[in-house]
Specification:
With 107 residues, this protein is mainly alpha-helical. It is 58% helix and 0% strand. It has three helices and no strands. The longest helix is centred in the last third of the chain and has 28 residues.
Amino acid sequence: SIAKSGMKLDADKDRWDLLPIDATREVVKVLTYGARKYAPENWRCVEGWRDRYYAAALRHLTAWRAGERLDEASGLPRLAHAICSLIFCLELDTREGNDATRKNSGQ
């Protein structure tokens, strides 16, 4: 017989459904713009990424705070540009941390 109610054991899994889709779409537009302007994944190779992405995020946040909603060059939201810079920092910092953890554990 066919069960009348299903079960899915996902209570301890990450809740991707909580990620706001409209804001995420704007971030993806900025990522696409950057991939076309530079190259896909180019952001991973930027020297001095900590200072440069920090500065870029602050430039976009400061411009947004001053009332400039859209970036002049791309026409995309300043906040999405800032989020991209912060995501780059988070990704690169996380990878560095994971690399350091692997080195310290002998992996």
